[in-house]
Structures are given as structure tokens and as C-alpha cells.
Amino acid sequence: MAKQKPIKYNYSGIKFTIKERHNKWWLDFYFNKKRVRRSTECLANKDGLIEVKKIIIPDIALSLLDHVIPPEKEKEWTLDDFATEYFELQKNQIREHTLERNIAHYNNHILPYFGLRPIETLKPIELEKWQNSKLKTYKPQTVQKYRSILYSILDKAVDNDIIIKNPLSKVTSPKLLKNFKNQEENVDPFTEDELNTIIKEANGYMKNFIRFMYATGIRPGEIIALQWDDIDFDRKIVKIYKTRMRDKEGDTKTLASTREVDLLPLAENALKDQEQITGNDGYIFINSSKNPFYSHDIIGVNFQKLLTKCGVQARVLYNLRHTFASQLISKGADIVWVSRMLGHKDVSITLKVYTKFIEEDDEKRFKKIEKMGTILGTVII
After folding, report:
1. What's the longest Cα–Cα distance across the chain?
2. What is the pLDDT of residues 145-194, one digit of tens each?
3. Are 267 and 324 in contact (CB under 8 A)?
4. N- or C-end of the chain: fewer Cβ atoms within 10 A?
5. What is the distance between the alpha carbons of residues 83 and 106, in angstroms, rounded to a whole number?
6. Which of 224, 185, 215, 223 is nearest to 316 (CA)?
7. Which residues have a Cβ under 8 Å from the Cβ of 38 and sit 6 or more positions away?
8. How far is CA 366 from CA 58, 269, 312, 363, in A?
9. 3-state secondary structure of 183
């Protein structure tokens, strides 16, 4: 079992550190410039900590000081009290739309169950029942999102000495479906024949969106945030520095996602055709009301309808990005360049996702052996 984190506790000017040692609470403090360390003989659990704070430390202070000033009564935090503080701190740490989504999940799926409860009274068995009740309605990966928010709130409460341990840490995480993976890893690219069928059947902005995403590998949220000023046709560059979700623009997914993407001919042609629809001012892709898209969800819905119409196996829109990467890598493109186009932090991420598309026959392999042998040189032993 992992050790408890040391707890700082100031009583009447004496700064105590409460530590776990040999499954007991120990005190560590200075008085008259001398360090004192001693065991309280109290078990290192919640009840033991209460005894240390309410009985043992006050007794020590009374024996050492002429005048004792007890600390103010500790606030009894409800989960919602602390969650409010937690989300306030998050404002400068995560993207705005991510924060709004997390707050919405909390309000809908956590607050009604535990919001008014004192945070220290939450028990693992209650949290497990809550998790199981959610699994009856939602997919494991969805429940995992709700759980992650609650887990982070409780972890912050541990960091602030409001609770000793995170009770959710004793509850097994939902088992993710075998066929579920992160979008970055759920790779099911389209074949060239499928793409030709899809593009031939598409029309309007959808045709241009599909061609552009396939020819750049840019994420759909990044595409709908693009404006014509972000395209440098002379230098053949697309500047990616923002994404769009829930009618708001925010930072890209990661620091590496802020990047410049090379404008390949197919992507440039798609933009030229789109220019005939929207003009060359403002957002590149706009909805039927001539406004930027609220999110890329509606494009994903239209894409599914198009696949059904074409008789092509259903896949999420994100697989156009995977098709861009997998086709280039399978045909020998420089994986470092592909990784940079995708906005991956480093090549290892690209290799993890797309290694299976690096194929070569014996003829290519023999040529590589010869080339690498020449580079290495000959050592006479």
C-alpha cells in the first residue's frame, strides 16, 4: 500500500508535519530551534489523523507554550464547494471549450449524486455503484470521461489535505470495449477506390472538405477554424494555430499541433473550388447560414450519410486523416515529414499508430540492406 503524503498542520504557531511511518502517524516539528520527531502510536488512517489533530497536537502545544491559540475550525467542504474551486483553477490550465465540457459533465453526471455531500464522507462502494449505474446507460469510454473528472477533483482535495486518500482510486476503472481506441489509434483508412467513390458522390462544400482533409491530414476541428488568411498560396503553406468547437475557437490540441502544413496540389485544388462557394474572405468552410460551423459534428453526420449512400463501410470522419498518413507511409514517404504534417509531438507517436502500413517486398528490403551496409562501412576483424 502506498504511503500517505505528509500533512502540514499549524497549531498555535508550531508547524507540525504529520507523516506516515510503519503504518503509524509520526510528528515532525521544531521548538526552540530543536527538531522533535516522535510517533503518536495512532494508526495511519482517517480516525488516527483526527485523534492526532484534535487530541495529541493540542496536548503537545499546551505542554510547550504558555498561551495556546487553537486553529480556526476547519471548513467542512462539500464536493460541490470544492469542485467550484477546482474548476476556477482550471481556467488558466486547459482550453476553454474543454473546461466547459468538463463542467457540463460534472453538472449532469456527478453533482446530482454527490454534490451536497461532505467530500470526506464519500466511500469507494458508493462511487462504484455510481459508476456501475452509468455503465447501464453509457459506453465504458464515456463513463471513463465522467470518472476522470471526479478523480481529478478528489485528487486535488488530497493535495490540499481535505481528504487523506482518493476514494475513487479503490474503484476499478471501467473496462474499455475491446474495439475501442483513441481516435488517433483507431485506424481504419479508406482505399483509393473508396475515396474516389465518396468524392465522386459528394458535392458542394462536402466534396471540398473531404478532398482537403484527405490531402492534408489536418484534424476536422482545425479545418473549420481555418480562414483564408491562414493560407499562403505563394509559399504553399497552411497555418494551423487554432481549433474550433462549440462555436468557440481555442488552442490546438498540443503545442506540436500548432504547425505549418505543406499545401499539396490536391489540397490546393480543393481550396480553389471552395473559393467559388465562399469567396476568399473570412472562414474557408461555412454552414448554410453563411456562418462558421458550431463544431465539426454536423460534417461528421453528413459524412456518414454520404458513406451510406455510396455503399462504403461506415467509418468516422477522422479516418480521412488516417488515410492521408497511411497512404503516404505505405508508399515510402518520409515518416518524419508525415509526422510533422500531422502535428505529432515526435515521430514515435506516428510510428506507434502507423507502423503496420510500412510494407516492403524483398526487392526493396535487399536494396535497403545494401544501402545501409555501404553507409556503415566495412570493418576487418
Report:
1. 90
2. 999 999 999 999 988 878 888 999 888 888 543 333 444 456 889 999 99
3. no
4. C
5. 9
6. 185
7. 26, 27
8. 79, 38, 38, 5
9. coil
- Give the pLDDT confidence score for residue 43 in this predicted structure: 92
Q: In 3-state terms, what secondary structure has residue 139?
A: coil
CA distances from 227 to 210, 223, 238, 314, 358 (A): 17, 9, 10, 30, 34
Determine the average pLDDT of the residues in 311-324: 92
Distance CA 316, CA 301 (A): 9
**CA 323 to each of CA 16, 102, 213, 218, 331: distance values in angstroms, whole numbers, following the listed order:** 60, 31, 9, 11, 12
Q: Residue 248's pLDDT band (boundaries 50, 70, 90)?
A: confident
**Would you say how long the chain is, in residues?**
381
**pTM summary value:** 0.53
C-beta separation of 162 from 8 below 8 A: no
| DSSP element (H, E) containing 286 | none
CA distance 324 to 214: 5
- Gap between the terminal Cα atoms of the chain: 55
Taking domain 192-357, whether its CATH number is 1.10.443.10 is answered by yes
Domains of the chain, by residue range, sit at 7-64, 79-170, 192-357
Q: Is the pLDDT of residue 314 over 70?
A: yes
Q: Using CA atoms, how far apart are residues 80 and 150, in angstroms rounded to an integer?
A: 11
State the Cα–Cα distance between residues 117 and 123, nearest whole angstrom.
11
CA pair distance 342, 325, nearest whole angstrom = 8
Report how far residue 301's alpha carbon sits from residue 32's, in angstroms, rounded to the nearest whole number. Answer: 71
> Angle 335-342/347-354 helices, nearest 10 degrees?
100
**What dihedral angle (degrees, nearest 10) is formed by the CA atoms of 4, 105, 219, 291?**
-150
What CATH number is given for 79-170 in this structure?
Answer: 1.10.150.130
